[in-house]
Design a protein that fits this description.
alpha+beta
């Protein structure tokens, strides 16, 4: 994966009541509130966080 690729990540479900590690992944992606969208680099680290909490997110290529 080239590091110049971007992903648009949107928080679709609440982190309330989720595992602390899942909340940390959402925060690590820069998401703070529902329906907020951020653009992140397509790196293995970010992909790992996205995969871990994929049930909370909507992801598309930017």
């Amino acid at each position: 994966m080239a590091s110049n690729k971007q992903l648009k990540v949107t928080l679709k479900r609440s982190v309330i009541g989720r595992l602390a590690s899942h909340q940390a992944c959402v925060a690590g992606l820069g998401l703070r509130r529902l329906h907020q969208t951020v653009t992140v680099q397509d790196t293995p680290e970010n992909r790992g966080m996205i995969n871990k909490v994929s049930y909370l997110l909507a992801v598309e290529e930017a």
